[in-house]
Design a protein that fits this description.
Radius of gyration: 14 Å
Strand content: 35-45%
Order of helices and strands: EEEEEEH
Largest sheet: 4 strands, antiparallel
Structural class: mainly beta
Helix content: under 10%
Strand order of the largest sheet: 1-6-3-2
Shape: globular
Number of helices: 1
Number of strands: 6
Oligomer: single chain
């Protein structure tokens, strides 16, 4: 599971989650899987952003091997 603060819309599940690394390139690190509206409650993400919506995704490491096997 990865928590992210990317903007999403209903139906965005399965969309790629990109992250920019120190080499300046963007890489897919996961797939968006859910969004939870916290209502009046808020959460502070590791990057310091405070939000009332938590987005979650599945890390690439959880599905890459299976996806690669499907190509063969």
């Amino acid at each position: 599971m990865v928590v992210h603060d990317c903007d999403t819309n209903p139906g965005a599940s399965g969309g790629p989650i990109f992250a920019r690394f120190e080499d300046g390139n963007y890489y897919i690190v996961g797939l968006h899987a859910r969004g939870v509206n916290l209502g009046r409650a808020t959460a502070t993400l590791p990057n310091g952003v405070t939000t009332n919506v938590l987005n979650g995704g599945v890390l690439v490491s959880r599905w890459a091997t299976q996806a690669r096997a499907m190509l063969n």
